[in-house]
Amino acid sequence: MDPDPKKSKVLTSNLPNSNGSSHPHSPFPDEVLEKVLSLIDSHKDRNSVSLVCKDWYNAERWTRSNLFIGNCYSVSPEIVARRFTKIKSVTLKGKPRFSDFNMLPRDWGANVHSWMVTFAKAYPFLEELRLKRMRVSDQSMELLAKSFPHFRALSLSSCDGFTDDGLKAITTHCGNLTELDIQDSVTADIGGGWLSCFPENFSSLEILNFSSLSSEVSFEALERLVSRCRSLRVLKVNDIITLDQLQRLLVHAPLLTELGTGSFLQELTPRQYEDIESAFGNCKNLRVLSGLWDATSFYIPVLYGACSGLTFLNMSDTVLQSGELAKLLAHCPNLRRLWVTDSVGDKGLEAVGSSCPLLEELRVFPADPYDLDHRHGVTELGFLAVSRGCRKLRYVLYFCRRMTNAAVVTIVQNCPDFTHFRLCIMNPRQPDYLTNEPMDEAFGAVAKTCTKLQRLSVSGLLTDTTFEYIGKYAKNLETLSVAFAGSSDRGMQCVLEGCPKLRKLEIRDCPFGNAALLSGLKKYEMMRSLWMSACNLTMKGCRLLAREMPRLNVEVIKDEGSDEIQADKVYVYRSVAGPRQDAPPIVLTL
Amino acid sequence: MEFVNLKATELRLGLPGRDETEEQSSSCAKNNKRSSSEMESSSEHQESGAPPPKAQVVGWPPVRSYRKNVLQQQKKPESDGSGMFVKVSMDGAPYLRKIDLKCYKNYFDLLKALENMFKCTIGVYSEREGYNGSEYAPTYEDKDGDWMLVGDVPWDMFITSCKRLRIMKGSEAKGLGCL
């Protein structure tokens, strides 16, 4: 093994049988230690390793190749580049999650450019970049495209700021690209020229996802691309692509494991219908299916031939009725994950309960989130039905308009293995609809029964009792989302004092004030971040926090028309990089 | 299936957290069962135990913006052709919208609805000048894939040939207006 010039060390030993180690008491030569450490992938393990001693810290940092930064403002690009020298893959996350719901100003920050500039200098061998909730300009994309000759994989989740020009730079210059995955990214109508910029001899693509872009791509270019990329296994197109166009793509790529269809609504001739049916029938390797915009009962059956191996079915962009869902599920015996809209109703969820014994994850989205009429959607009955039939359930996201304590208690008795329990009763502060009591007992049961619970979102009418339960029982809880809940500071205090593994706490519209905020003084440095909006915080309380805890960044966004005393939106996070320099004027750093 | 008042699903381009009073827009409201006054009720927080507030609260329910009101998008071919949905984009806006052209009787209604939806001024069309002088100009893509200025052809011809709309910045649309 050639010694790394960066770690020129004097190899001495006081022991008679020198083993080449620089530290006389270390049993391993550095090369062995590094070889062993290079096998460790988990960044949590690596962080632990780096704390053992100086030698291990160094050995770890020289062998780390995957960088994970959960909050881009917790550290600076310079610090990262100094510590790690051999990075090949970066995951970087930016804005707080509530930005997904329009709660942050558009120019809040999380711009990737300063990172890109540093990476271009420090990590010329960079191969992968995965960004979440970051702003990515065309300029950054151009820098990316030109700086890393070995670049293979770009994944943008919930990002914005780029246009056709930025993507064109990527597709034109990244000759070794295997992955271009753009999920949930909000961006203006950007045009589809980028797809046509893949060179004619380019054939390395394995993953292509542009389902959330509104680009009008050239179908001819797409078809040529798909036919020459023989290793393509993931293809998710947007709703510009029609059914018969999809059929032609499937003919070129029958080995796909993941497919996102385009629009599923088109007047097809009987011959075309047969063709698409047979194309799906030939997709023997399909595990994941999504898209299906505007799918109706007439066209859904064309899918049946591709469903036997499906493990993840995402119908959340389709308004499906219960009968249609039931018929479809009958063809999907291996389903582990299912996303639907609440148009399927409780009856549809009964079908889920009876057809999907292997189900681990269920997400039910509201087809019409602002419908104040309680006639549509799902209720506690649907959730109960699923819990009776799907005992392996561990992840649920459930939007509903009514719920009872008794139902939730039964649900978690049926399914005690929940790791993620996100229940959204859509009317704020709604009580148990049968007893009119708060929903405290429901979430108490979740906290008590689901010992593996990592993530919890609560809703409905809740008193401090809920948070006492959470603090007392939810010992593995890492992420908690709270809205329109609690009675006093005590609620938040219980959580801060009780949940040892808490990393992310996001709160909106709760009666928690400065006392609650300050009770977590010591805790926030052990967490990634805290978000509190529309609570009872004041500037004074926030300033006190900032003063007491210099290693926390305390940022306040004031609403228009708010007075000088209130702190409307507060974002607190630990950082070794100090206050950020790129905050827009509306964000006050205390 | 009934459609709810589109006003309820309107995205705001103002700062988040603002408590704006809702104005009545001329956008499509096929559903008559809900009066506009209900939508104008204040969003003040109420005491626990009281009936929950009925007006829309920013960022609630916590559904991603791109995950639009799926009901609105659904086209129903089996009905009498109800629904002529086209996408509408505006330069600089992060999200597209969809509107049903059949909800409008004429260009005036359509432009007023667009102005409300995107909080912009489009101004008045003239055959000679297009929308010159306005901050924004409405354009559309027709069946042949060409980008046309909204207003040149009779309304009925427009709605059958319009595939999608784009509200361009006035400076860029000058070329179209001067033809």
Largest interface: which pair? A-B, 61 and 49 residues
Task: Give, in order, the helices and strands of chain B.
Answer: HHEEHEEHEH
The pLDDT mean of chain A sits at 92
Mean pLDDT of chain B: 66
Would you kindly provide a written description of the structure presented here, covering whatever features stand out?
Chain A: One of its GO terms (biological process) is SCF-dependent proteasomal ubiquitin-dependent protein catabolic process. Chain A: Keywords: Auxin signaling pathway. Chain A: Pfam families: F-box_5, LRR_6, Transp_inhibit. Chain A contains 19 helices and 21 strands. Chain A is α/β, with parallel strands linked by helices and 590 residues long. In chain A, helix 17 (489-498) links the parallel strand 16 and strand 17 (504-508). Chain A is globular and about 70 Å long. Chain B is α+β, with helices and mostly antiparallel strands. Chain B has a 5-stranded mixed β-sheet with strand order 2-1-5-3-4, with helices on one face. In chain B, 27% of the residues are buried. The model of chain B is unreliable at 1-5, 16-54 and 74-82 (pLDDT under 50). Chains A and B meet through loops of A and helix 2 of B.
Helix and strand topology:
The complex is a heterodimer of chains A (590) and B (179).
Chain A: H1 30-37, H2 43-49, H3 54-63, E1 66-69, H4 77-83, E2 89-93, H5 113-122, E3 128-132, H6 138-147, E4 153-157, H7 164-173, E5 179-183, E6 207-209, H8 219-228, E7 234-236, H9 243-252, E8 258-260, H10 270-281, E9 288-290, E10 312-314, H11 322-329, E11 337-341, H12 345-355, E12 361-365, H13 380-389, E13 395-400, H14 405-414, E14 420-425, H15 440-449, E15 455-457, H16 464-473, E16 479-483, H17 489-498, E17 504-508, H18 514-519, E18 529-533, H19 539-548, E19 552-557, E20 569-574, E21 587-589
Parallel strand pairs in A: 1-2, 2-3, 3-4, 4-5, 5-6, 6-7, 7-8, 8-9, 9-10, 10-11, 11-12, 12-13, 13-14, 14-15, 15-16, 16-17, 17-18
Antiparallel strand pairs in A: 18-20, 19-20, 19-21
Chain B: H1 36-39, H2 70-73, E1 85-90, E2 97-100, H3 107-118, E3 136-141, E4 147-149, H4 155-161, E5 164-169, H5 170-177
Subunit structure (chain B): Homodimers and heterodimers.
Pfam families (chain B): AUX_IAA
InterPro entries (chain B): AUX/IAA_dom, AUX_IAA, PB1-like
